[in-house]
Amino acid sequence: MWSKVLYIDLSTGQHHTRDRADLFDRYIGGTGVATQLLLEECPPGIDPLAPDAPIIFSIGPMTTIFPCASKAVAMFKSPLNGELGESHAGGRLPMAMRFAGYDSIVLKGRAPKPSYLTIHDDEVTIKDATSIWSISSAEVIGKILRNVETGKGRRSIMRIGTAGENMVRYANVNVDTYRHFGRLGLGAVFGSKNLKAVVISGTEEVDIPQMAPYKKMYKKLYDAVVDTEIMDKYHDLGTAANINVLNQLKGLPTRNLKQSRFENAENLSGEYFADNLLRRKIACSSCPIGCIHIAMLKTPFHKGHEFEVHHISYDYELIYALGTNLGIIRAEDVLRLIDKCERYGMDIISTGGVLAWATEAYERDLITPPDTLGISLRWNDTDNYLKAIDKIVEMPNKFYKTLAKGTAAAAAEYGGKEFAIHLGGLEIAGYNTGPASIVGQMMGVRHSHLDNAGYSVDQKASSHQLSEEQMVDKLIEEDHWRMINNSLVCCLFARGVYGEQNVIDALESIGIHKTKEELDTIGREIFNAKYEFKKREGFDPASMKVPARFFETVSQMGMIKKETVSKMVQLYRDKTGI
Length: 578
What we know:
Blueprint: E1 4-9, E2 15-19, H1 21-27, H2 30-41, E3 55-58, E4 72-77, E5 84-89, H3 93-100, E6 104-108, E7 115-120, E8 123-128, H4 138-148, E9 155-159, H5 162-165, E10 173-175, E11 179-181, H6 186-192, E12 195-201, H7 211-226, H8 232-235, H9 242-248, H10 270-276, E13 278-282, E14 292-302, E15 306-314, H11 316-322, H12 331-344, H13 348-363, H14 369-372, H15 382-394, H16 398-403, H17 407-414, E16 422-423, E17 426-427, H18 435-443, H19 454-464, H20 468-488, H21 500-509, H22 516-536, H23 562-576
Parallel strand pairs: 1-6, 7-12
Antiparallel strand pairs: 1-2, 3-4, 3-6, 4-5, 7-8, 9-10, 9-12, 10-11, 13-14, 14-15, 16-17
Helix pairs in contact: 1-2, 2-20, 2-22, 7-21, 11-13, 12-15, 13-17, 18-19, 18-23, 20-22, 20-23
C-alpha cells in the first residue's frame, strides 16, 4: 500500500522513484526497509564521508495515522565508529514524508557547491545554499527557509550547523528546531555532501482502506496513551525525572563515571527544571503526549538589565551529558552548554563524553595548556567548557581536531583509554545500572542508544536475581521486538502501548495482515541484516574492549565484574550466531 522510494543524486540533481513493495511487504517499513536499502546502496568499505556513501530516511505504515507513530529513521555509515549508523527523529518529518508521498528517501552524491534540497510532492530541486552555509543556528536557518519555501503546516526542515559543515564526527542534524538525528554523526555526512538542509512537504492525502475498523483501533490506542498512566511521566516531568531516581539508585554517571551518584543532583533534577525553568511542552506530529520540554534561559548582554531569551529543549540525557558528567551544579549552566551545542549542531551525549574525558586527561597531565590553547578544563567550569566547544568546532590545532573525532580517537592519541567512557567507539548513554546496560550498548544492533533496554534488564535483575543467561535472553528478545517497533515506526516511549497484539490489530485495521509468528521472523531477519552490515564494515565483538572505569565505579547492581560482562558477551554471540 505504501512503498514508494525516492532516489536522489546530489551530484547531478537527477532523481527517480521506484515502487519497492518487495521490501515493504517483507520488512514493513522504517528500520527494516532502511537496513535493506543501506545494504543495497552502500559500497562495502566505503569512507562514510565519501560522495557515494548513502543517507536513507524511512517511515512506516502507521506513520501519521496512529498516535505516537511519530518517528522517522535515518540510516547511514557512521563517521564516528565506521559501521552502522542509525538515528531516529520526530518533529514534523514523518508527517511531511507521508504527505509528500515517499516512504523512503535515498540520498547519494555530493553537491558541487553548498546546497539545500527541497522535496515538494514530485518536485525535487537542489538549490544554492552559499548564503546560509556559514550560519550555524538551527533556529535562524529554519526561519530563513520557512520564509522562502512552500508547504506551511505540512513541512519539515532538517538542517546542520557549523559542526556538520566542518565534519565534526558527532555532528547532528536538527529537525524542526527541537528534534534531532542525534547520534553517530549524520550531520558530518550532510556536511560531506555539501548539504545544508532538506525541506520536505506535500499535499497527498492518506487513504485508509476501511474506516470503521481503523477508527475503532485508533480510539483504543489513543485512549491507552492519554487516559492511562502508561505515558504520564513523559508529559509531566519528562525523562528528566530520571535524574533523582537514578541518583538514589547509584546509577547516574558523574564526572566521567568516577562516581555513580551526584551530590548536587537535586539542583539538576526534573523537578527543579519544571518548577523554575520550564516554559512549555510541545509534541511531535501525530503524538498527543507533549514530551518535549522547553526551558527559558535569560542571559544578559548589556548593563541595565538587557536580556536575551533562549528557548532550549532539555531531557534526561542532556542533563546527564552536560551536567552530572561534567560536575555542573547549576541547571542554568547546563542550559547554557546545551544551547551552545544546539547552535553548532553537535550530538550532546558525545560532546559531554568528550569533554569529560578531556577534563580527566587534563587533571592527569596527559594533556597540557599548550594542547588546550590555554583553556583550563576543570569540573564545573562552564565558561571554559563553552570555549572548548568553540574550539572543537573550529579545530585550530591537533588536539581539538582529535576531540572532533570522539572520545575513542582522543584516548588512542593522548592516552587514558582506561577512563575513556565509550562502548564500540560511541560515548555512552546516561545509565550506570549494571552489566546488561554495558552489554546492551556494546552488542545491540542499533547501537546508537538504548534500543534493547539494558538499563531496564539491570533494574529487573537487581530485584529478581536474574542469571547472566536470563539477562542476555531479555536483551535479545527486546532487540528482536524493537526491530518491529522501529519498522512501524512508533516512538519507543509508547512501547507499553504498542505491544504485540495491539501491533497485529493495528496493522490489520489498515489492511496489513501479519501473524505473531510472521512478526517474530521479520524481527529476527532485520536483526540479522543489521549485523550483516555491521560485520561487513568491520564490527568485531571479539576485539571490543570495555574501559577499566566501568569496573571501578559502583553501579545500581553494585560493582560490575569484568568476568560477568565477558560471559554475557559470549552468551549473546552464541545465542545470535554473530
